[in-house]
Amino acid sequence: DCKIETSFTLNIYEAIGYLYLDITLNIDKELLLKILNRNLHLTNAIIGKGKIKDGDEIKDASSFLIPLMINGIYTNATLSENLEPKLSTISDELNDFTKNTHVKPILGGLELSLDPMINPCTYSLIEDFEDEIEINSYWKDISYIKNTLFEDVNSEIRLLKDKNLLDSVKDMNYFGNNKADFLFKSYKMCEHWFFIINNEISNIRENISTENSNPYYWKQLKNKNEILDLNFLEFNTYIMKHIDLLPGHPTRLRIKEDYRNNSKKVQKDRIDMLFKYIDQVKSALMNLSTPGHSHDEMFLQEETEKVNDRILMLSFIAMSIPSIGAILAPGISNFIKIMAGCGILLLPVIYILIRGIIKKIRFNKNK
């Protein structure tokens, strides 16, 4: 049991709810060495198991502090809301959300949400400016500047011995964590898109199998799919806009080439995986829109056939007028007049019957 002086700095990014928590711990050398000798992660060992006094009550530090910070930022904000019932006013809903939270949301499907998950930096940083910690086999020298910056990959700890490089190392930790969290949140957003699309499939399948002919349903489905496409386009463009702007290691640190190359490889593999996720979501959205497009094409074909039938009927009538005049002319026997009149009247009837037979044959063939 011990008391550790602790301070917190919370940073927030917009769009996908990225929060960065900078925790500073004032730990004496003896306690720090005990933690290092046990190969424990500093954040998990101290914050994860730490306690805090709230009045007369002792509470877990993480369960008390993190909600306290989140509520301080999002007191009046709705963090999650399904906008499907509000498609006609979706722009107003997004504007209100931005006004209340000062954050421009990126929608997952039709869900308006902001993920307030706080992420301490992956790598803890030990400021050993008095050179009190001995460098052993656990530590790897990652800078060309001798005796300045070391890393223990297993415990995710970096050790800095030169105070002049402190700001640069903090930037390295900050932006490195930013990269990892940006990609992690992007993966999660893609997974959420898969979940949304999967939920839509059963409803569309049911309406196709029951041959739903309600034009309102198909119109709403088309509008919904178009909004889904636009929401994903916004997410995709946000990713593409920021993915190339992810910074590397500060040049002042003179990070060793093998370390930089390994970091780039890991980063490239993660980005390639994200692009595969995005391509799969694109393909799934296209397939989700196919039934609506097919219904529109079938409806257009049926309406075109109706128009063609009407045009042909008008053509029969136009052709019949001079024929009727010729039949009524004197000198033609009544028998011929009756036969000619029946023939003129039977032409559209025969056409309608033939069209009906053709449609029935097509239907039975495709059944």
From TrEMBL:
Keywords: Membrane, Transmembrane, Transmembrane helix. The chain crosses the membrane at residues 311-332, 338-358. This is Uncharacterized protein. It comes from marine metagenome.
